[in-house]
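Request:
You are asked to prepare a plain-text protein record giving the amino acid sequence and the backbone structure tokens, at your earliest convenience.
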Amino acid sequence: MNLQPASRPSSAARADTAVNADLDLIRAVARQDRRAFKQLYDRHAPRIGSYLLKLLKRPELVDEAVNDTMLAVWQSADRFDPTAGQLTTWLFGIAHHKGLKVLRRVGRFRAERSLDTLPPAAWDDAEEREETPQAAAPNNPEQTVMGWELGDALQSALEQLSMEHRSVIELTFGEERSYSEIAEIVDCPVNTVKTRMFHARKKLAQLLIRRGHLDAGPEE
């Protein structure tokens, strides 16, 4: 008798299983299978709701945005192309769009085009870390802060960021998305994502330094 414990599936195997399950569900939803839609909703609505809460900052708007997102999924499931990317990226793209629509309806969204312009030299370093944007450089407060857990001070600082900045931070560190995936979700060029991340890190560091939670480092 073999008394050895059964080996657990690797993280890669579990990820493949999840992807295949998602594909089966979205294909069934495309055939208007309501049971599959409920399973898809239960599987992804909580994560979508968590992201939208951080994006909108108003709990009373989240249910509306989640429902708008999932209604769009029900109506356009047959348009999902698995060769173009992951289902979760597609879902978050819809959620982001619906979240912006809700913000515009309540008059709280203002496009900040200045966030999308920055000399290329400012994001050359980020370009080398596209798939691992969490990487931190020594003595760099803008990046070191991103290695922290989300404590009260950091959470408060995050809430003071613009919607564009907050979304790239949440998608990068909360959802572990690469810059290319974030670009697809928020519908902008990859370099714009890098620019927003640069500004977001800098702003977070400034807010935390102001509150005494981060060392400003040596003066130049």
Notes: Residues 39 and 48 are 14 Å apart (CA to CA).
